[in-house]
Amino acid sequence: MSDENMIEAEAHCDGPCGVYDPASARVAGEAVQSMTKKMIALAENHGSDCGTATYINTMSRYAAIKEEEAQKCKDELLVLWTDFFKPQHLEANPDLHDTFWNAAKLCSACKVEVSADHAQELMDAIEAIHNMFWSVKGREVPWIRAS
Questions:
Q1: What is the pLDDT of residue 11?
Q2: Which of 81, 108, 93, 98 is nearest to 22 (CA)?
Q3: Torsion of CA 30, 28, 81, 132, to 10 degrees
Q4: Is the confidence at residue 43, as pLDDT, over 50?
Q5: Which stretch of DSSP H or E encloses residue 136?
Q6: 3-state SS, one letter per residue, for 91-115
Q7: For 66-107, what is each residue's pLDDT tens digit?
Q8: pTM (2 decimals)?
């Protein structure tokens, strides 16, 4: 293709829709926490007979969902961090980068572990991001969980 046939396009982000909301990260985070709780309860209530097909199938399904939702949560958070938030938002939110970095690391931890503590820490980080996001937008939106 020659230079004369090239079209130049510019956008402020990967998808210039202008629609951002931390709610999708919250929903994914809640699913991570829910699956984590279910995995812990299943292991505690199943006793020593963890070799049955039913147990293995159920635990595998919980783990697959937990990992998938943790990745969704991470993807949603990274879009907010890299596409929505701008350098001028750092003044009002000096811990913005640390909050997002820690949240992304918690998504990874929740994928590889079965930790109720890390799942709760992830939800706490998402809540902090929710508050930063809506503050930057100049709106008060209450933190409401689906679960």
A1: 47
A2: 81
A3: -30
A4: yes
A5: helix 116-136
A6: HHCCCHHHHHHHHHHHHHHHHHCCC
A7: 999 999 999 999 999 999 999 999 999 999 999 999 999 999
A8: 0.86
Instruction: Give the relative orientation of helices 96-112 and 23-46 as an angle to the nearest 10 degrees.
Output: 30
Identify the residue whose tokens are 């097909």. 53
- Of 53, 107, 57, the closest CA to residue 78 belongs to 107
* Amino acid letter for position 113: E
Q: What gap in Å lies between CA 138 and CA 78, rounded to an integer?
A: 21
- Predicted local confidence at residue 52, as pLDDT: 87
- Please state the length of the chain: 147
In which residue are the tokens 């970095």 written? 101
**Counting runs of H as helices and runs of E as strands, what totals does the chain give?**
5, 0
The CA-CA-CA angle for residues 7, 10, 16, to 5°, reads 125
Q: How many CB atoms lie within 10 A of CB 93?
A: 17
Structural domains of the chain, with CATH: 21-136 (1.20.120.400)
The region of weakest confidence among 11-20, 70-79, 119-128 is: 11-20
